[in-house]
From TrEMBL:
PANTHER family: TRANSCRIPTIONAL REGULATORY PROTEIN NARL-RELATED, TWO-COMPONENT RESPONSE REGULATOR
SMART domains: HTH_LUXR (SM00421), REC (SM00448)
InterPro entries attached to this UniProt entry: CheY-like_superfamily (IPR011006), NreC/VraR/RcsB-like_REC (IPR058245), Sig_transdc_resp-reg_C-effctor (IPR016032), Sig_transdc_resp-reg_receiver (IPR001789), Tscrpt_reg_LuxR_C (IPR000792), WalR-like (IPR039420)
Keyword Oxidoreductase: no
Record-annotated membrane-spanning stretches: none
This protein's name: Response regulator transcription factor
Start and end residues of each HTH luxR-type domain: 149-214
Modified residues (4-aspartylphosphate): D57
A single GO molecular function term of this UniProt record: DNA binding
Length: 219
């Protein structure tokens, strides 16, 4: 894949450049702030060399608050074919749910600790580049714990919660079946039950899968 990196940590940025190069990916640019990231994307449109995916930190200069997130949202709006993998030091609920609000295809959210688990990081990046979703299991777990305070999902069985948790990580039905060691038809039945219990069976014009995940995240 062609990848653009944006992180103000020179050590992490250069480490990712080397890792991706060793795995056969092309790092088109590696920058230290969100403005440079957007500038790289704009130039790539002119040259006809848009990246397949970008990896962007949430907090970057100048304020170190949400520059990376705002750049990620802008990229999703202006170049929807470019996958966006967001890195964050902490589980930040607003950032994860904002990325899911419109469309979770080609979007990922990983904790930075996950980067040291090379296979998981590369798998997430490849899924995002292929137009799939990839959400860190720890992010999903912590968001679920928070959402239980109001718990709109109390009617779900333990297995249905497990299936919904896998959906929130961006896995397909086939992948969920393999990860939970159940049949794909069983996964489909659980998902239909989830839609019914969350009152999403009559929803038109929206992805029930995305709406179910948003409900799961407590929005």
């Amino acid at each position: 894949m062609r990848v653009v990196l944006a992180d103000d940590s020179t050590l992490l940025r250069e480490g990712l450049v080397r890792l991706l190069a060793e795995e056969g990916h092309e790092v088109a640019a590696a920058v230290g702030d969100a403005d440079q990231l957007i500038a790289v994307l704009e130039r790539s449109v002119v040259t006809g060399e848009k990246p397949d995916a970008v990896v962007v930190d949430v907090r970057m200069p100048p304020t170190h608050t949400d520059e990376g997130l705002r750049a990620a949202v802008q990229i999703r709006e202006r170049w929807p074919g470019v996958g966006v993998l967001v890195l964050s030091q902490y589980v930040e609920r607003r950032y994860a749910t904002e990325l899911l609000t419109e469309d979770s295809e080609g979007v990922g959210y990983l904790l930075k600790d996950r980067v040291v688990q090379v296979d998981e990081f590369l798998n997430a990046l490849e899924r995002v580049g292929a137009g799939q979703a990839a959400f860190d299991p720890e992010v999903v777990r912590q968001l679920l714990v928070r959402s239980r305070r109001s718990d709109p999902l109390g009617t779900l069985t333990a297995r249905e919660r497990e299936v919904l948790g896998e959906m929130a990580q961006g896995h397909t039905n086939a992948a969920i079946a393999g990860r939970l060691h159940i049949s794909q038809s069983a996964v489909e039945k659980h998902i239909n039950a989830i839609f019914e219990k969350l009152d999403l069976t009559g929803t038109a014009g929206y992805s029930r899968r995305v709406l179910a995940v948003l409900r799961y995240l407590g929005t």
